[in-house]
Every structure is written in structure tokens, then in C-alpha cells.
Amino acid sequence: MSDAAQAKITKFAALKARMPTSELPRWSLAQAYEEAGQTLDAFREYGELVSIKPDYCLAWLRLGAIALRELADLVVAKEALTTAQRLAIEQGHSAPKMEAESLMRELAEAAGDGDDDEDWPS
Fold first, then answer.
1. How far apart are CA 120 and CA 25, in angstroms?
2. Are 62 and 42 in contact (CB under 8 A)?
3. Cα 83 to Cα 12, 33, 58, 63, 98, distances in angstroms
4. In 30-46, which positions are buried (b, 16+ CB within 10 angstroms) versus exposed (e)?
5. What are phi and psi for residue 12, nearest 5 degrees?
6. What is the pLDDT of residues 64-107, one digit of tens each?
7. If you ran DSSP here, which 8-state letter would residue 2 be given?
């Protein structure tokens, strides 16, 4: 890991320690972990983030993407992406909605569901 990546992680971990109930340091720390290739740590941070802020659409989206692409946990991916899509619609966020739908199609393909599953958006 580069010194710059480690510096970001250290910085945001310290901010998280000082502000444990704030979502911003957790989001930044999760992003720094992802940038450093530490996807399990990022996944954990996103999970903690949605536990303190359950309506954080982008955190649910990243949880779903990591569960799908890195962990191959299709159950967790489906739950996270469904939540992300619902929140994106409720909050009027079109780009995250489209990304969630794209990831859900990718998930359906990974699960072998194809287009015949009524639970998936078209």
C-alpha cells in the first residue's frame, strides 16, 4: 500500500475515533479502504455506516457492489442493492438508482436468474 493511501486511512480512522456517531468519517474511511484495495475493511465500514445511518443510499450501494463483485455473497448483495434502489427512488437520486439497477442485473446473471425472475427490475 502506498504511503498516501495509508495516510488517508490513518487520517479518517482518527476522525472516526473522535466522531464515532458521524457518518462522514466512516464514509471517507470506507472509500480510503476501497482505494487501497482493502475491500473487506471497506465492507465492514459501510456496514457500520448503514447501521448508524440506515438511509445512506450510497453506502448500501457500495455494500452491494462489494458483496457481489468481491465477496460473491449474492444474498447480501441482493439485500443491499434492493435497499439502495429503494432509497435512491425515495430520495430522488437517479444516478444511484441506475447504478443499483445495473448491479442488480449483474447479480441476476451471477445467480443464473436471467430475465425470468419477477423480483428483478427490467
1. 33
2. yes
3. 26, 23, 10, 10, 13
4. bbbbbebebbebbbbbb
5. -75, -30
6. 999 999 999 999 999 999 999 999 999 999 999 999 999 999 99
7. -
Are the C-beta atoms of 98 and 63 separated by less than 8 Å? Answer: no
pTM: 0.87
Task: Using CB atoms within 10 Å of the CB of residue 66, give its burial: 0 to 12 exposed, 13 to 18 middle, 19+ buried.
Answer: buried
Location of C-alpha cell 443499483? 100
Cell of 26: 466512516
* C-alpha span between 73 and 58 (Å, rounded): 19
Query: In terms of Cα–Cα distance, which of 117, 107, 111, 83 is closest to 97?
Result: 83
117, burial (CB in 10 Å: exposed 0-12, middle 13-18, buried 19+): exposed
Amino acid occupying residue 101 = E
Q: How far is CA 69 from CA 48, 56, 104, in A?
A: 20, 20, 12
Enter the C-alpha cell of residue 35: 482505494
